């Protein structure tokens, strides 16, 4: 009696009714009956507020799926948890959704916004899982969303997410093939990826979407060859198969001269001696015209880089390399794959089957490379039948006059096997050996005749069939064998064997004139009980005997034809009528009667016993089509070798001239350049971490700073000699720079670095430096930078003199006796203009944007605004300087203004401003604090406190404020841009607004969006800017190219792909306004 549902739920008992399901305890494996409460416990756990219960439920559900159970009815309960904050639960939910999203498309579409949010998740596994689920929903309406998600994922900083994007491309292509052009752009971008994790996946996408676009591979060919050894095994197989087809289209055949010789040899074998003499001169002339073969270096690169993979533990990789060598390598080098393939014969039977199929094909053309491993193909009693038959095939292909005796002894052993199919295959193999090797033909024939007395009827039948084929080669010498076989007609019952004996007797009836009529007599008696194939041969035997020995067989022939006339099979009836009209002369019979003998007794060529694998090599080895010997769906034909080699320069990756240097210069740089380079002429990515705030952070190279006479070196070299002296002084200056930094503050270190650098002195050098500086400041030519006296107001200045502006001037940094100082640190106006030299470092605009930190209503009369002054923070060059303006709009004095308990995120640092002891009513104070945002746009949170209140505030930087300008030459810009290609490059097209049509406006708008420096450019339609991220010092290179009309193309090169992506959006927004 079945237990009640309640009892089954409480006790966890089993029932004989319904489908067994997973029990309450995952470890117990208990079952309970299926009813309307099925999976209720899992649904309750999924609806729980506790993450531990949800995680346990998801583990049980995934375990059910792994065991093959149907969990689709849980889809609504599971999909609700896709927004769960617990990472582990979310991962398992995505695993479930990938499995059932295609079946439950309507419910999955309801959560599509959640999947889109998952694409922005900080966890790379969640982003990848969200994209995987999104691509599993097979609904055409979400194709644009999928395309956008794939494009974004293709630029993701995580290689795992980019790999998932490559996997999603074939799914989207199968859903909507109209997206092919856009998908090809994504594939082209991912093919340039230098990560081994992505390579195999994107090549698979290439094979699925656009295998004909061979031009996409040219530039990435060498990179794929070099990455191959480190790619995952699945990717190695895909890449090797693709490169095999690529090489067949791009390189010449390494065996082209040998193939000509082989063809000539075959012609000589089948031709006569006279023909050989006539063609000898023509062949010699043809070979003389052939150019000596020189292998392409890229062809050699492919062979060299794939050879180590023959030692892979993965059988598919070894098989892929083996087929590559078979199809591409010179004949003398193919032999290296034999040992690796023989090693695979120790694997599972499934692997052995595939490998032996390919070995059987290879051994027909390249017999020599497997001969040393002959014993590895000997058959074991434990081998499955299919493996035995394939090994027989290989042994037969390898048989020659040297090893035939050994192979025949093996065959004798195999004939005693209990596996009848294997025995039949062995007998056929003996027949093939006898056909191919003339000296053992008689031996094989005698052995097969002995098998005719075997007790096993199948063995005898197969022997008869093989003997029949062998006798056709020399029938006159083997009449005794024919007589012996005629006696077997009473015992052999296998139709094919009986038909073969009758055909032999009829074909060579002149050699056995006494036996043939008697055999016909016996067969006429049993004619009605024979199989159709035997009946047809009886009719043929009767016709041949009627034409050669009509006296003895005329009546028998008429009797057999009469029986056949009324047979149930129409083929036999038709054959009987046709033969009667052909051989029996009547008034109605036509002219064919005269040619009856020629028709029936014509000389027939001996059959050629060939391997069934002879013509399989036109399929690519290792493919499903080769295994089936039929073209499978999706199979791509192996191209023929080209007659002339295509242009090899298409695979050259262009390297700019300025990146090339001689080996002597490289050695010199390695020897003389210290580990921490403090040389004054270096800017850009070669700057060391120990350099000064201006120079090390890429704000301004030291050599471009004009110096007052007292700071200039008295013996500074001229500009022409500077390059030669720089390397000589590098060693001396490095310890001095480090010593100075150890003893002084960061401000003093900056000046020490500047004063010790070999910058130019004199009016001519200063003029040149000012010219460079103006170029770097956004093209503000004609603006002199004289020494000026800067008045600085105190925090307690009267409100009438200093109204609180919405936009306030940029801070101006000064070099005073080599030290950088804030203006408000001086306490008043600086009175010695001869000591001042002001160098503007910001782009050419007069005001910066301010942001509200604390509204006067929320601050109870205290209003706080802040701006990013775009100046180096003196306390720490890795911090962004933030100027804060505090206004007291109350009637009372505010005391003890300070920052309290900053709570930055992990990695962030905040340098508080000095405490403001008192702020009178109506007064405004301006202070500076430093924040290290870690190259992130996440907000820095802290408390702004007074003597009575605390205000929670946060500062969130625009991405353009996370960097400092770098000034470099055009050649330096191009050199660094060449290093940041592929995944580090983001390109977008945009429409310039009507306001942004002049050069000045474009530069102003772009520099307002990002703190970057202008780079000189020779092209009139291009604008170049460079900057470094403040924290890590990563280069950010911006190129804006104007096109026809108002269109333009924006390119950003940076290792920080997230910063690059966000910066593109901000710049486009600034230029489109």
Automatic annotation (TrEMBL):
Residues 747-764 have a biased composition (Low complexity). One of its GO terms (cellular component) is clathrin-coated vesicle membrane. Keywords: Cytoplasmic vesicle, Golgi apparatus, Membrane, Phosphoprotein, Protein transport, Transport. Residues 729-739 have a biased composition (Basic residues). SMART domains: AP3B1_C. Pfam families: Adaptin_N, AP3B1_C, AP3B1_C_2. Its main location: membrane. GO terms for biological process: intracellular protein transport; vesicle-mediated transport. Residues 1-33, 664-770 are annotated as: Disordered. It comes from the Eukaryota. It is a peripheral membrane protein. InterPro entries: AP3_beta (IPR026740), AP3B1/2_C (IPR056314), AP3B_C (IPR029390), AP_beta (IPR026739), ARM-like (IPR011989), ARM-type_fold (IPR016024), Clathrin/coatomer_adapt-like_N (IPR002553). Residues 664-675 have a biased composition (Basic and acidic residues). Belongs to the adaptor complexes large subunit family. Subunit of non-clathrin- and clathrin-associated adaptor protein complex 3 (AP-3) that plays a role in protein sorting in the late-Golgi/trans-Golgi network (TGN) and/or endosomes. The AP complexes mediate both the recruitment of clathrin to membranes and the recognition of sorting signals within the cytosolic tails of transmembrane cargo molecules. AP-3 appears to be involved in the sorting of a subset of transmembrane proteins targeted to lysosomes and lysosome-related organelles. This is AP-3 complex subunit beta.
């Amino acid at each position: 009696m079945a237990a009640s549902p309640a009892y089954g739920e409480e006790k966890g008992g089993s029932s004989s009714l319904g489908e067994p399901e997973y029990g309450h305890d995952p470890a117990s494996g208990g079952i309970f009956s299926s009813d309307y409460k099925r999976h209720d416990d899992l649904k309750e756990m999924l609806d729980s507020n506790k993450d531990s219960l949800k995680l346990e439920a998801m583990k049980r559900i995934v375990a059910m799926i792994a065991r093959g159970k149907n969990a689709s009815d849980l889809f609504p309960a599971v999909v609700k948890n896709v927004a769960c904050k617990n990472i582990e639960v979310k991962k398992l939910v995505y695993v479930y959704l990938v499995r059932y999203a295609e079946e439950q498309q309507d419910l999955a579409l309801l959560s599509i916004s959640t999947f889109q949010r998952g694409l922005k998740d900080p966890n790379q596994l969640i982003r990848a899982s969200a994209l995987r689920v999104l691509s599993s929903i097979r609904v055409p309406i979400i194709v644009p969303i999928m395309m956008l998600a794939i494009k974004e994922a293709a630029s993701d900083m995580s290689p795992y997410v980019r790999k998932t994007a490559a996997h999603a491309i074939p799914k989207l292509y199968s859903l909507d093939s109209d997206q092919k052009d856009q998908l090809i752009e994504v594939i082209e971008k991912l093919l340039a990826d230098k990560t081994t994790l992505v390579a195999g996946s994107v090549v698979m996408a290439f094979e699925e979407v656009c295998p004909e676009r061979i031009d996409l591979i040219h530039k990435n060919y060498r990179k794929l060859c070099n990455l191959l050894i480190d790619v995952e095994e699945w990717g190695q197989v895909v890449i090797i198969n693709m490169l095999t087809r690529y090489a067949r289209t791009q390189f010449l055949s390494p065996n082209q001269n040998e193939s000509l010789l082989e063809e000539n040899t075959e012609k000589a074998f089948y031709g006569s001696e006279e023909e050989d003499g006539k063609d000898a001169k023509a062949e010699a002339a043809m070979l003389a015209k052939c150019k000596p073969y020189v292998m392409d270096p890229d062809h050699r690169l492919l062979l060299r880089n794939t050879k180590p993979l023959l030692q892979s533990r993965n059988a598919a990789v070894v098989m892929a390399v083996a087929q590559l060598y078979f199809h591409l390598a010179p004949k003398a080098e193919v032999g290296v794959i034999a040992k690796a393939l023989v090693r695979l014969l120790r694997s599972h039977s499934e692997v052995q089957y595939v490998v032996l199929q390919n070995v059987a094909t290879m051994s027909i053309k390249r017999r020599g490379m497997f001969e040393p491993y002959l014993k590895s193909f000997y058959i074991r009693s434990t081998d499955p039948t299919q493996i035995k038959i394939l090994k027989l095939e290989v042994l037969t292909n390898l048989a020659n006059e040297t090893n035939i005796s050994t192979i025949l002894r093996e065959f004798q052993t195999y004939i005693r096997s209990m596996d009848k199919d294997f025995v039949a295959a062995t007998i056929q193999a003996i027949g093939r050996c006898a056909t191919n090797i003339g000296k053992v033909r008689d031996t094989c024939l005698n052995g097969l005749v002995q098998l005719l007395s075997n007790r096993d009827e199948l063995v005898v039948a197969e022997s008869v069939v093989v003997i029949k084929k062998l006798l056709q080669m020399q029938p006159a010498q083997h009449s005794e064998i024919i007589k012996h076989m005629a006696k077997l007609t009473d015992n052999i019952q296998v139709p094919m064997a009986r038909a073969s004996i009758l055909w032999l007797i009829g074909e060579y009836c002149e050699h056995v004139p006494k036996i043939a009529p008697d055999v016909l007599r016996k067969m006429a008696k049993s004619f009605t009980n024979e199989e159709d194939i035997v009946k047809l041969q009886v009719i043929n035997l009767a016709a041949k005997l009627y034409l050669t020995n009509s006296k003895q067989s005329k009546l028998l022939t008429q009797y057999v034809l009469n029986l056949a006339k009324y047979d149930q099979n129409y083929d036999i009836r038709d054959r009987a009528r046709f033969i009667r009209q052909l051989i029996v002369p009547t008034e109605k019979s036509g002219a064919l009667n005269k040619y009856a003998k020629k028709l029936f007794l014509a000389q027939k060529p001996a059959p050629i016993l060939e391997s069934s694998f002879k013509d399989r090599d036109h399929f690519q080895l290792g493919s499903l089509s080769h295994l089936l010997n039929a073209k499978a769906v999706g199979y791509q034909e192996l191209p023929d070798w080209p007659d002339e080699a295509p242009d090899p320069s298409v695979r050259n990756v262009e390297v700019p001239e300025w990146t090339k240097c001689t080996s002597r210069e490289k050695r010199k740089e390695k020897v003389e350049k210290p580990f921490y380079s403090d040389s004054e002429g270096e800017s850009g990515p070669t700057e060391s971490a120990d350099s000064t705030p201006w120079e090390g952070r890429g704000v301004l190279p030291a050599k471009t700073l004009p110096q007052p006479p007292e700071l200039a070196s008295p013996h500074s070299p001229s500009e022409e000699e500077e390059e030669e002296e720089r390397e000589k002084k590098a060693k001396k200056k490095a310890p001095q720079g480090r010593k100075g930094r150890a003893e002084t503050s960061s401000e003093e270190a900056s000046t020490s670095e500047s004063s010790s650098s070999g910058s130019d002195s004199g009016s001519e050098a200063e003029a040149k430096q000012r010219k460079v500086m103006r170029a770097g400041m956004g093209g503000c030519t004609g603006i002199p930078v004289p020494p000026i006296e800067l008045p600085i107001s105190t925090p307690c200045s009267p409100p009438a003199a200093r109204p609180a502006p919405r936009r306030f001037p940029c801070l101006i940094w000064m070099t005073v006796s080599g030290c950088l100082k804030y203006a408000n640190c001086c306490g008043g106006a600086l009175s010695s203009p001869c000591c001042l030299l002001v160098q503007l470092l910001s782009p050419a605009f007069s005001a910066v944007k301010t942001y509200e930190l604390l509204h006067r209503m929320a601050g109870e009369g205290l209003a706080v605004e802040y701006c990013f002054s775009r100046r180096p923070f003196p306390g720490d060059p890795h911090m962004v300087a933030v100027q804060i303006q505090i206004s007291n709009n109350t009637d009372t004095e505010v005391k003890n203004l300070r920052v309290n308990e900053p709570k930055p995120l992990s990695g962030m640092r905040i340098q508080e401003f000095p405490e403001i002891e008192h702020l009178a009513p109506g007064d405004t104070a301006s202070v500076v604090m430093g924040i290290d945002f870690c190259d992130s746009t996440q907000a820095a949170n802290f408390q702004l406190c007074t003597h009575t209140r605390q205000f929670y505030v946060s500062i969130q930087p625009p991405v353009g404020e996370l960097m400092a300008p770098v000034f470099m030459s055009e050649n330096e810009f191009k050199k660094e841009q060449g290093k940041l290609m592929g995944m580090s490059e983001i390109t977008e097209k945009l429409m310039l607004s009507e306001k942004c049509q002049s050069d000045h406006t474009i530069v102003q708008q772009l520099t307002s969006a990002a703190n970057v420096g202008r780079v000189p450019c020779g092209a009139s339609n291009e604008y170049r800017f460079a900057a470094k991220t403040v924290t890590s010092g990563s280069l950010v290179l911006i190129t804006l190219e104007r096109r026809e009309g108002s269109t333009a193309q924006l390119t950003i090169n940076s290792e920080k792909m997230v910063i690059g992506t966000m910066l593109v959006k901000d710049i486009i927004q600034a230029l489109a306004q």
